Amino acid sequence: MRQTLFQEKYPIYTIEISRSETTYTSVDEILGFFKEKIDAHPVVAYIGIFDHYAHTASLKDGVISADVKDAKNILFCFGKELPSPAVLSVRPRSIGVAELEDSFVITFLEAPNPAANEAMETWAKAVMNRK
Fold first, then answer.
1. What gap in Å lies between CA 52 and CA 47, rounded to an integer?
2. Domain extents for the chain?
3. InterPro entries, per this entry (predicted)?
């Protein structure tokens, strides 16, 4: 799992998993796995799925890289505290899953909560261990 700055300001985590490293065959299967993890977590609330690929494809001027075959986000919230209105700016969370020809790319924005980062990183890495 790599930690980088996207567009020189957004701290993100990224893992690319080749098809040979997992038994999952689609974005929807991976999102189903994440949904199971979210539902099993005592604090996390599931919100929904956003089909980024379909949305972008539907736009008159939408642009999708030729490498991307599918792309969706699963949305959820780790929020067990609401200490100030400012915390709303960093919630809810999402994990993006993109399907490429020979791999899946899983990404998420770094959360201010270390436990949330740890959970999301563990879930993402577990996709690779499903062989």
1. 15
2. 2-129
3. DUF6858
